[in-house]
Design brief:
Strand content: under 5%
Largest sheet: none
Low-confidence stretches: none
Structural class: mainly alpha
Shape: elongated
Protein name: DUF2784 domain-containing protein
Order of helices and strands: HHHHH
Pfam family, one: DUF2784
Keywords: Membrane, Transmembrane, Transmembrane helix
Distance between the termini: 45 Å
Organism: Paraburkholderia sabiae
Number of strands: 0
Helix content: over 70%
Length: about 120
């Protein structure tokens, strides 16, 4: 079942890339006056994606994708979320879960402020 766990990991990584890369793309596109950054559907999905992440973290609910991947890999849910795990792997430093919850909420606020600074089309 490692193959399915790897697929969940890839989907999870793509969602993270969409959330983080999407904000950077919006800022870059807005600076270059690109019309696509005002695409309402894209912006709603982007805002909703980080909104779900921030809500789960603030409520201390484990990410369903992380739980699924852990269960597919080991048969049990892990003790860390996706971002916490990979930050500790990449940086060899483990931060408490509340730090990530705060970071997700701050990122949500930045995305929401971007919504008003670079509003989507109606």
């Amino acid at each position: 079942m490692i193959g399915l766990a790897d697929a969940v990991l890839v989907v999870h990584a793509l969602i993270v890339l969409f959330i983080v890369g999407g904000l950077l793309a919006i800022w870059t596109g807005a600076a270059m006056r690109q019309a696509w950054v005002r695409n309402r559907a894209f912006r709603i999905v982007h805002l909703a994606a980080i909104g779900v992440v921030a809500m789960l973290a603030a409520l201390d609910v484990p990410c369903p994708l992380t739980v699924l991947e852990d269960e597919l890999r080991t048969g049990a849910a892990g003790t860390q979320g996706f971002i916490q795990h990979w930050v500790s792997v990449w940086m060899y430093y483990d931060l408490p879960p509340w730090v990530f919850a705060v970071a997700y909420v701050v990122f949500l606020l930045i995305v929401a402020l971007t919504w008003f600074r670079v509003p989507p089309r109606r």
